């Protein structure tokens, strides 16, 4: 079995041999490309199913039934069904070894008698899916050539030479954090940052080097130090004393008393943002905003004249109420979905809260509806468990009710685009707008995966924070300095206070000229200038020669 | 004449299936089912159970043996409300396609 991790390729040996032969490799990659395209077209997010582009379904070459779960033989492109075992029969009859499940891109190996994993095939599958999704996304115009399709980075030339001389050091990147005196609220948030793929990529690629930064009390530097410590390979817990000290100096969260983890979270994000050079108020591209920033849209509709006033607000996370005004209904289960539905439900406004611009009356009938206009790469949810009655902290109490949340969530139904499209269709609008949005992009761009859960046990002022964080497909529990292997079940069964989800696909800014194109244009202009100057000099020289 | 009736229904069933697939109705119902199963915690519950099973056994467990073991439990664990809802969606579609 090929298990050389440094060569970056391991798994089923029968799949491995497919990739060793050049013609096989090419035809395999072509197969992946074709099935990814079919799969993406099949799974478009459509608010109105009647408007979906028709997708043709293959029939089994053995029994002619329409295949809802088609399989393709890698040896000869024979397509057959799994249900009646016709694809397995084909493999047995022809001696071919591998076939692909079109729905997932997984490979079944006749010799291993099982679905198998191979890292190269896995990468090819993802690359083919991303390429197919790029071509059919609603927002980006790879089709029209305004942006190059995504290519995964491969080391070439100097980079490859540097990588060759480096030693690969195994590092689990999981370290406990010492409790420095009621600082579990800080530890769980720091663990959520460490587990955050976008923060991890930012700091590991040296985008903010604490040794080069000249800012005083820089929270961003402190976070860089935490990443360096966690990824140092040093065993045993780390005490984030300097992070704590910087927090004391920069905010009002001073002292050793227990703080609210969510408050600390928002405060730290603001600190990092304000200390980042080049951070702006609007459309900031600091690490905090690139990671967490989304847009919330609120539509206020005057029920009398139908006029809608729209406002958008940036958001760093979503705080969800757990109780209705009259307390949540008995028997209804609290889930993240139900909370989100409540969050995006139209809400009647009080009689004097809104006066309509159009019909000019202080409307008694106005409703406000929230929706997510722009989804952030990392979506953070807070369940409002701590009720403070009119600022009097001593009278606060905690809502203990558990909330069920999923390991993956599709956010499409809560987005502005989707909600508006649904509304248009239910009103029977057959105008150009509805037709031009036959689909809202491949499903994958709305999917999020859970990677961290912050839990709180005990009373408001006498409790303890712990968290769960995911590393690939394994879950670990972090209790200050104690890190233990856990399970998805344990994580989902815990009483969550905050949940962090990461988007499965990242996108570029829409309707923006890519920076590499701007650079090319600038370079082309400079080149023209240089040529012009050179020609002018030639002309001058000729003139001088004649004198 | 059972043989002839069976053949007739097979043909109807196959045609219905094809129409359901190509119109996107099957995928739509499937997406609805997937979302409801996710929301009810069913999906995560069985993912967890399968992972725990894998962790328990020392030698590898094949996909098909996992399926054989968990399929009956999984089918039984689908809430009756979800079952009814999906069945009614299917029934509605079939009725819309077949002339009585």
From TrEMBL, chain A:
Residue span, UBP-type domain: 32-137
Enzyme Commission code(s) on record: 3.4.19.12
A Gene Ontology term for the protein's cellular component: nucleus
Catalytic activity, reaction form: Thiol-dependent hydrolysis of ester, thioester, amide, peptide and isopeptide bonds formed by the C-terminal Gly of ubiquitin (a 76-residue protein attached to proteins as an intracellular targeting signal)
Pfam families in UniProt: UCH, zf-UBP
USP domain: residues covered: 175-504
Gene Ontology biological-process annotations: protein deubiquitination; proteolysis
The organism's place on the tree of life at top rank: Eukaryota
Keywords tagged on the record: Hydrolase, Metal-binding, Protease, Thiol protease, Ubl conjugation pathway, Zinc, Zinc-finger
Annotated GO MF terms: cysteine-type deubiquitinase activity; zinc ion binding
InterPro entries hit by this protein: Papain-like_cys_pep_sf, Peptidase_C19, Peptidase_C19_UCH, USP, USP_CS, Znf_RING/FYVE/PHD, Znf_UBP
Family listed: Belongs to the peptidase C19 family.
PANTHER family reported for this sequence: UBIQUITIN CARBOXYL-TERMINAL HYDROLASE
The protein's name in its UniProt record: Ubiquitin carboxyl-terminal hydrolase
From TrEMBL, chain B:
Gene3D superfamilies: 1.10.246.140
Listed GO biological process terms: chromatin organization; mRNA export from nucleus; protein transport; transcription elongation by RNA polymerase II
Alphabetic keyword roster: Activator, Chromatin regulator, Cytoplasm, mRNA transport, Nucleus, Protein transport, Transcription, Transcription regulation, Translocation, Transport
Gene Ontology MF, one: transcription coactivator activity
Compartments in which it is found: Nucleus, Nucleoplasm; Cytoplasm, P-body
Similarity section: Belongs to the ENY2 family.
Assembly notes: Component of the nuclear pore complex (NPC)-associated TREX-2 complex (transcription and export complex 2), composed of at least SUS1, SAC3, THP1, SEM1, and CDC31. TREX-2 contains 2 SUS1 chains. The TREX-2 complex interacts with the nucleoporin NUP1. Component of the 1.8 MDa SAGA transcription coactivator-HAT complex. SAGA is built of 5 distinct domains with specialized functions. Within the SAGA complex, SUS1, SGF11, SGF73 and UBP8 form an additional subcomplex of SAGA called the DUB module (deubiquitination module). Interacts directly with THP1, SAC3, SGF11, and with the RNA polymerase II.
Record's protein name: Transcription and mRNA export factor SUS1
Organism: Obba rivulosa
């Amino acid at each position: 079995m090929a298990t050389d991790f440094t060569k970056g390729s391991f798994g089923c040996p029968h799949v491995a041999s497919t990739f060793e032969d050049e013609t096989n490799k090419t035809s395999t990659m072509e197969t992946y490309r074709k099935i990814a395209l079919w799969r993406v077209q099949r799974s478009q997010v459509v608010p109105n199913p009647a408007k979906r582009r028709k997708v043709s379904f293959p029939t089994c070459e053995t029994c002619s039934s329409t295949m809802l779960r088609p399989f393709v033989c890698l040896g000869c492109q024979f397509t057959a069904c799994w249900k009646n075992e016709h694809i397995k029969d084909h493999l047995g009859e022809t001696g071919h070894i591998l076939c692909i499940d079109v729905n997932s891109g997984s490979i079944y190996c006749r010799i291993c008698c099982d679905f198998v994993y191979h890292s190269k095939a896995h990468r090819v599958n993802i690359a083919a899916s991303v390429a197919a999704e790029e071509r059919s996304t609603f927002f980006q115009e790879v089709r029209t050539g305004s942006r190059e399709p995504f290519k995964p980075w491969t080391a070439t030339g100097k980079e490859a030479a540097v990588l060759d001389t480096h030693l690969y050091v195994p590092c689990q990147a999981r370290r406990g954090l010492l409790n420095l005196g009621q600082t579990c609220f800080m530890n769980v948030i720091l663990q959520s940052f460490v587990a955050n793929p976008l923060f991890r990529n930012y700091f590991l690629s040296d985008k903010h080097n604490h040794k080069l930064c000249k800012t005083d009390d820089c929270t961003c530097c402190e976070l860089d130090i935490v990443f360096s410590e966690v990824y140092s390979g040093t065993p045993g817990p780390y005490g984030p004393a300097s992070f704590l000290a910087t927090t004391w100096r920069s905010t009002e969260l001073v002292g050793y008393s227990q703080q609210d983890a969510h408050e600390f979270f928002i405060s730290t994000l603001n600190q990092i943002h304000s200390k980042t050079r080049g951070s702006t108020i609007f459309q900031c591209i600091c690490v905090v905003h690139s990671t967490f920033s989304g847009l919330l849209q609120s539509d206020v509709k005057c029920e009398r004249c139908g006029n809608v006033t729209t406002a958008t607000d940036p958001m760093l996370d979503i705080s969800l109420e757990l109780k209705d005004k009259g307390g949540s209904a008995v028997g209804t289960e609290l889930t993240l979905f139900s909370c989100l539905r409540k969050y995006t439900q139209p809400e009647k406004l009080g009689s004097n809260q809104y006066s309509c611009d159009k019909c000019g009356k202080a409307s008694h009938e106005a409703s406000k509806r929230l929706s997510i206009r722009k989804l952030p790469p990392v979506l953070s949810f807070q369940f409002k468990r701590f009720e403070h009655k009119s600022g009097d902290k001593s009278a606060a109490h905690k809502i203990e009710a558990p909330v069920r949340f999923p390991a993956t969530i599709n956010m499409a139904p809560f987005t502005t685009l989707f909600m508006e499209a649904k509304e248009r269709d239910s009103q029977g609008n057959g105008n150009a707008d509805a037709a031009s949005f036959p689909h809202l992009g491949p499903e994958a761009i709305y999917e999020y995966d859970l990677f961290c859960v912050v839990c709180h046990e005990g009373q408001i002022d006498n409790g303890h924070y712990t968290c769960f964080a995911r590393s690939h497909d394994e879950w670990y529990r972090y209790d200050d300095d104690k890190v233990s292997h856990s399970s998805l079940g344990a994580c989902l069964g815990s009483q969550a206070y905050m949940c962090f989800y990461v988007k499965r696909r990242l996108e570029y800014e829409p309707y923006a000229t890519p920076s590499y194109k701007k650079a090319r244009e600038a370079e082309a202009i400079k080149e023209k200038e240089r040529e012009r100057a050179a020609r002018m000099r030639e002309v001058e020289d000729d003139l001088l020669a004649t004198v | 004449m059972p043989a002839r009736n069976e053949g007739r229904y097979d043909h109807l069933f196959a045609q219905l299936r094809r129409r359901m697939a190509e119109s996107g109705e099957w995928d739509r119902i499937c997406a609805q089912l997937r979302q409801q199963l996710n929301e009810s915690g069913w999906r995560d519950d069985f993912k967890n159970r399968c992972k725990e099973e894998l962790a328990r056994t020392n030698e590898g467990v094949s996909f098909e043996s996992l399926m054989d073991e968990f399929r009956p439990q999984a089918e039984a664990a689908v809430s009756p409300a979800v079952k009814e809802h999906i069945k009614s969606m299917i029934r509605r579609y079939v009725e819309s396609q077949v002339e009585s």
